[in-house]
Every structure is written in C-alpha cells, then in structure tokens.
Amino acid sequence: MTDNVKMWTELGMDVENHDNLCQVLPTAVGDVFLSQENRPKAMDFWDMVISDVHGIRPAELIEAQKNGQKVFGTFCVYVPDEVIIAANGIVTGLCGGSQFWVPDGEKVLPKNTCPLVKASVGARLGRTCPFFRIADIYVGETTCDAKKKAYEILGEDVDMYVMNVPQMKRDIDIAHWKDEIATFSKKVEEVTGNEITPEKLGEAIHILNERRKAMARVYEARKSKVAPISGRDALLMTQIAFFDDPVRCTEMCNRLADELEERIENNNGVVDPKTTKRILITGTPMAVPNWKLHNIIETSGAIVVCEEMCTGTRYFEHLVDESGTTLDEQYMNIAKRYMKNNCACFTPNGGRIDDIIRLAKEYQVDGVIDCNLKFCCLYDTEKLPVKKALNEADIPVLDLETDYEDSDAEQLRTRIGAFIEMLNA
Amino acid sequence: MRHCVGIDIGSTCTKLAVLDEDKEIKEVFLRPTGWSSKETAELIKDQLKDKGIIAENSKIVSTGYGRASVAYADKAVTEITCHAKGASYLHGAKNLTVIDIGGQDTKIIQIKDGVVQDFMMNDKCSAGTGRFLEVMANSLTLDISELCELAKQGSNVSISSMCTVFAESEVISLMGKGESKENIAHGIIDSIINRVAGQAQRFNLDESEVALTGGLYQFDYIREKLSSVLKKDVSVSKYGHYAGAIGAALVAHDIL
C-alpha cells in the first residue's frame, strides 16, 4: 500500500481525494463478489486484481513505460487493439464506472450527460485514477455525441487522437473504416517509434483472436442450465480484460473455462436452476466498478447469464480473419470484424435486435433486461424496437434506466423483483 | 379461523386487508405510514391482535415500498404482483390494465388471462404521482377533493412543468397573476391526467378493461377525466385503495 501511495504521488494524483475511493471499494468488492457462495476457484485471479485495481496493473504499466513501451488509453470496443499491439504498444481501458468521478466531470460537462462520459472526464481532470495518468495518449472514437465533445475537453489536458467510426454499414463505410485503421496505424507508429509489419500485425491479430476465443469459452459455459458462474463474476472477468495484458488474460480465461466446463460435467452450479430465472442484459456498457444491476438482479432470485453489450459479447464475438499477408489485406480483415459490432450509434441497427434474440435463445434465458445509462438517448430510443421484437418472439423484457448513484437501488429492486415474479407466475 | 393478511406499506399510507379461507374480505383499514415503516408494522401487529387475528393461525404477506420492514410477514411480494392480483379479484376481468396512482410512483400493469404480462413505473421523479397532486393542492390550501370540485368549474390553464417543485412555483406565479383558483385547479388535474394517460397509452388498451386503483379511486372527476383522455371507460372498485393489500392477502391465501 505504501508503494501504491508513492506511485500515485509520482503520477501527480490527488491522493487525498483518491483515498475516499480506496475506502469504499473493498466494501463493495466484499458485498458484491466475496459474499457469493460456491464461486469458481479460478476467480481468485480477478479477486486479486480488483482488490488492488489501482496498484498491480498500474505498476506493471509504469515498468513497461520505463522499458520504452507506450500506453494507449481507449474508451470503446471499436478501437482496434491489433494495431497497437503490433507496434509493441499497450492498450488499457479508460472508462469510468463510479459516481465518485461524476462531480469532477460535471465541472466541465452539462449535467444531462451520461454518467460514463462524466466519470471518464472527471477521472482525468480530478486526477483520481492512475490509468488516466499513465496513458501516453488517449484514443477516442465518434460513437456518441457526448464523447465527441468530451474528447475536445480532454484534448486540452492530454494527447488525444480520435478515430472516425462510420455511422452506417454500407460497403463504402467498411472501406472508410479500413482507411481509418490504416491512418491510425501511422499515428501508432509515430507514438511508439516502431514499424508495423505484416508479420507483427499478423501476430497481434492472432493474440487477440486467442483472447476472444478464451472469453467465448467462458461465455459458452454460461449457456449451460447448470449455471457454473454468476453474472457478477463473469462481468468482472470481462471488465478486467480491458485492462489486462492480452496473453495473460487469455491464459486466465482459459483456466476459468476449464473449471466451468468441469463444473457443468459435475452439475455443480452457483444457483438452483429450478428456482432461478435466467436473465440476459442488453444496453449501455458497465465500466468498472459498475456492478449495480447485476448485484440487484442476482440478489432478487435470478442470475445474469449473458450481456449483449460492449462489456459483454461485443468484446469477443467474431474473429479477425488471420489469412491476410499484406497490411492492406489485414486492415480490411480487421475493419470487417469490428464493423460486425452492433452499437446503437449505427443506423439502421437491426443487427443488434437480431443479436439479442439469437443470444436469448442460445443462453436459454427466461427474460431480457434492457437498461441504459441516463441521458444515453441512442440506447434509450432503441428500447422501443427492441421491446417490439422481443414481444413478437415471446420473450419477456423489462426496460430500465439508471445511473451510477445508489439512490434508485430500491426502486430498481421493486421493478426487477416484480419482473422476476412475473417470470415465475 | 385462519386468516390471510395483506399489508401494503406505501410511501404515504399503509393499507391492510384480511381475507378468510374463502377469499371473502373480512376487514380493511388504513393508517398513515409515518416516518418509520418498521414502527408502523409493529402498530399494525397490535391492531391485528386487538381484532382477534392471531399470527400463528394466519399467513401474512407484505408489499409496498416498506415490505421489507414487516419482520413478522411470511413473505414479501412486490406491489406490481399484488396490485395485479388485487385488481383482478376486485374487477373480475381476465384482461385488465391497472392504473395505480400512488404516493411515490405511478404504475401501469397489463394483465392478460389473469397474469401480469407487462408493467411500467414512472421514473425517480414525482411527476404524475399522488405526491404531485398533494403538493399542488397544498399550494392552493385545498385538499384533493376540494381541488377536484374546483377543477370542474375551471378551464384554459395548463401547467407545463413536469417537475413538482417547478410546477409549484408555476402555480404560485399563476396565483400572483390573479388567475382563478378554478382555472389553476383545472390545469393541475389536466397535468397529472395527461402524464398518467401518456404512460398508459404505451400499452395496447384495445382488448382490456381499464381500472384505477390507489387513493385517487374515490374522486369521480379524476376517473372521468382519465376515461375521456384514454377514450375508454375507467372503472373503480369501492376497495380501490386496498387493491395492493388485497392482492397481498390473496398471495397469503396461496400459501395458507
């Protein structure tokens, strides 16, 4: 801990205010994670990481920087990690998931901005998150209006690069995205001082495909009615994947998947499948330490078995074709994979509805909870077509809206409780 | 004699219903929830004892926002399920849309073939709730029944603020401008009716009856207004205020 304080001070952090966050986090981790029974043993890795989330990984990143590596901070699953890894760069997620950072964000952003954006800006400007201090450059993208404007504000304080994500999925848009990736790779070469070659990019594509496959194995196990892992634990695994070294992440996810597959064989689940309803959550992403919805659902007689969101299936579904031998082919293959993601920023976005219905069937769910963070008008507006499609498919759905504050926890508990009672009726 | 007791601890008012083994309503009463729902729960326990209802022979189910405060309840069930059960019982309809204007939140519940099909609750804010009406009536120094009476005679004023706090200052400035109490009252009732009807219209009301439950069931003017905006006859039961408590008592009957 003393080493951490020294590190945080050297990073120019507001250590005094940061202590307030450090004080509440252990209780939250204890309440949400450690209190669960019969957890997979392999979760010990993630328990260790989350209990020192601002210590272990930041120290590794600083060590890597001393050895000449550059750290790229990202906010979105559209930013192609492949390009950064190919230039021996390191990627770290930067999204803020705590109310703690919101007031500092509100100093410069309108109050009716989504809490994820406010927290992300607040974490930087309030100097209360080591990852936001460590990153050599931030890589943003044009997936929402609030983020676009927030990047302009962040750009005054930190080196900022923004990728122009298309808003449609025609062939010309995919071609544009490929060009955007190629342009980004020049920036990455400039920042890292390393050339991106087809060999190195091929290796990076392979490394990240392996991570996707490992995460997919864990999610595959969640499809089983045995329910070998809680939604909370699976969410934590996914959230930490955005921060971790991809090779270690792959190893840990595979280790967890091994155990889950064994549990399924032994019929060793974390809940009683006869009395517990299976829920798919869809909507806006859940950045660390946002575990609010999962926690309420899983303490109200249900289990979350899948997340159709960026901190969920969108992070690992679809592999990049590894057969490209030239940079041109590889950029195109990367572009095609990323454009399979169905974010609400696209129009039209029927693919997301198809995904939700497909996943609801694959994960054998009893109901869907469609939840957006307050002031995210894109996901909020998509609730209606999502609901309509789910009604037609005879899958019950509950619409919710929330933010990072705990003040609506009881109201959410009533709605979620009523939904689960409805599924049980 | 075995009893089925439903206790609905709402944000402003606690409702209680006792059914017998044949699901006949034996007793209903209400009391203000006060500042502590735990204390209210204890007082109700004493009241039940006075009425000769012994916990050992009964099943007790709690609901409402204070449902977790009833330590002696056999089960706690959300108000959505209870209102649906209670309203179905009171109105005898298989397909029913229940509009419950509560003190803290407004619920729209769609029931198909006797089970909850879908529901919606207003968000964190008090717009479109009983609290909105209460605050507005207070600002005119009226009670809700007086407010309804005056509203019948008024016209031509609309309250545009959805936020209760802002709406209150809107009412005060209307009074300052010399607008008549009748017209202001009219605008207040219109505001809540439009808000609630807008929510209800998100559901398909074609094939279901519509019922109004909660404390406002007793005001004819509100029921008529709601019927006219929804273009649908809204019905009420004399036990409308107790729909949640009766629903809870019916759940108690299921576990008797």
Low-pLDDT sequence parts of chain B = none
Strand content of chain A: 5-15%
* CATH top-level class of one domain in chain B: Alpha Beta
Number of strands of chain A: 8
Number of helices of chain B: 8
Q: Give me the CATH superfamily of one domain in chain B.
A: ATPase, nucleotide binding domain
Largest sheet of chain A: 4 strands, parallel
What is the averaged pLDDT score of chain A? 97
The oligomeric status of these chains comes to heterodimer
Into how many domains do the coordinates of chain A divide?
1
How many helices of chain A? The count is 18
Distance between the termini of chain A: 51 Å
Biggest interface pair, residues each?
A-B, 14 and 16 residues
Find the count of extended strands of chain B (DSSP E, 2+ residues): 10
Radius of gyration of chain B: 19 Å
Category by helix and strand content of chain B: alpha/beta
The percent of residues in helical segments of chain A reads 40-55%
Chain-wise SSE layout:
The complex is a heterodimer of chains A (425) and B (256).
Chain A lengths: L1 H9 L4 H20 L9 H8 L4 H11 L4 E4 L6 H6 L3 E4 L8 H5 L8 H11 L4 H5 L2 E5 L3 H10 L5 E4 L7 H22 L5 H25 L8 H11 L4 H20 L11 E7 L8 H7 L3 E7 L18 H12 L11 H13 L4 E7 L3 H16 L4 E6 L6 H16 L1
Helix pairs in contact in A: 7-9, 10-15, 11-13, 14-18
Chain B lengths: L2 E7 L3 E7 L5 E8 L4 H14 L7 E6 L11 E2 L2 H13 L4 E6 L4 E7 L2 E7 L8 H10 L4 H10 L10 H13 L4 H20 L8 E5 L6 H11 L3 E2 L7 H12 L2
Parallel strand pairs in B: 1-4, 4-5, 6-9, 9-10
Antiparallel strand pairs in B: 1-2, 2-3, 6-7, 7-8
Helix pairs in contact in B: 2-8, 3-5, 3-6, 4-6, 6-7
